[in-house]
Amino acid sequence: MDNFTVLGIETSCDETAAAVVRGMPPGPGEILSNIVFSQTEAHAPYGGVVPEIASRAHLEILDGVIERALADANKNLADMDAIAATAGPGLIGGVMVGLTTAKALALAAGKPLIAVNHLAGHALTARLTDGVAFPYLLLLVSGGHCQLLVVEGADKFRLYGSTMDDAAGEAFDKTAKLLGLPYPGGPAVEAAAAQGNARRYPLPRPLLGRSATEGNSLAFSFSGLKTAVRQLVQNGAVDVNDAAASFQAAVIDILRDRCDSALSRFLREFPDLEKPTLVVAGGVAANFAIGSALTVLAEDRNIRIHIPPPKYCTDNAAMIGWAGLERLAAGASDPIGIGPRARWPLDS
Ligand code: KG4
Ligand code: ZN
Predict the structure, then answer these.
(1) Rounded distance, CA 26 to CA 36, Å?
(2) For ligand 1, atom 22, which residue shows the shortest CA distance?
(3) Residue to probe by mutation, ligand 1, list 43, 139, 142, 183, most atoms within 8 Å of CB
(4) Which regions of the chain carry the CATH code 3.30.420.40?
(5) DSSP strand E in the chain: where?
(6) Statement: the pTM of the whole predicted model exceeds 0.85
(7) CB within 6 Å of ligand 1 — which residues?
(8) In CATH, what number does 4-124+312-329 get?
(9) How far is residue 299's CA from residue 295's CA, in Å, rounded to a whole number?
């Protein structure tokens, strides 16, 4: 077989998504369709994702989203080699909707079921879009996660360090709320920051500059930064754009410093790689200023960097289809009785 075609389903947070991808590892693959229905409007009045609203919305629209993904790809269920769905981590109600639907389709069409780790979807996107070879260093920055990992295989991840408190995207979302910016916070803070003066407010950079010899030197921490933004707001008249810019500059410094240390470790562990590669993935990787800063770091250190296009950084089903395709190509599939997992670390 020279390539596989897989239907991917994603329902772990507030996007209801389905996509059809085709290809073979190491990629790049073809994205035949990519439907993402964002529930942003339903959650906006609450300033964050409400799990009950999310699972109900997934239930109501997922069938239609899958039908459109197949139609856009000009395919039927019978053309699929497997059905892949996010089985965790995420909001359990939503994950159940997607996984159960995938099981029903797999059973009805007599196709293998692949239960995909949502984080593996983010982690492997750079192979779908750019065919990046293993191993690579991965900065995974999303609403729920902030970690540095070595990706050695489609099912082989080794953790270098992760956040001790908030995730990077969470810090953006909370800062947006504090500054009175709309939900979702990341894009709103980025837009405000583009109009602001990043030097206006000195904000802390927790754990910055910790030497690589100290324990857990690749950990992240964002809660001190968030607290500093809160104090800034409580102290009275704050310029929203300048505060957003100052916050984003602090996040950039933290991410750049951790990536720099992680790169040193990665290069020590893999001294013979012809072109060592840093991949940035997850919703926060859609941030242009962060991407630019990390691109400069990569150039300074003479390594390659891959940041997928923004629409494949934020939650989507093409990445889930691709992660499923990688496991299918490796001969894996999952039993129909497999359950959803609210928590599911990548290195487990
Ligand atoms: O990967 P993702 O879509 O969902 C999760 O798996 O969490 O990431 C969502 C997170 C949110 O916290 C959102 O605010 C953040 O990614 N995000 C951004 C940007 N776009 C999305 N953060 C900073 N700048 C952006 N442009
Ligand atoms: Zn995600």
Answers:
(1) 25
(2) 186
(3) 142
(4) 4-124+312-329, 134-310
(5) 4-10, 15-23, 30-38, 82-88, 113-117, 136-141, 146-153, 156-162, 277-281, 304-306
(6) yes
(7) 13, 142-144, 169-170, 172-173, 184-187, 190, 282-284, 286-287, 314-315
(8) 3.30.420.40
(9) 6
CB count within 10 Å of CB 183 equals 18
* Range in 134-143, 212-221, 245-254, 316-325 the model is least confident about: 212-221
Q: What is the token pair recorded at 205? A: 């950079």
SS3 at position 222: coil
The mean predicted confidence, pLDDT, of the chain is: 95
Tally the residues of the chain. 348
* CATH of region 134-310, choose from 3.40.50.970, 3.30.420.40, 3.60.15.10, 3.40.50.620: 3.30.420.40
Neighbours of 275 (CB within 10 A): 9
**Residue 146 structure tokens:** 């902030």
Ligand 1, atom nearest to 315 Cα:
3
SS3 255: helix
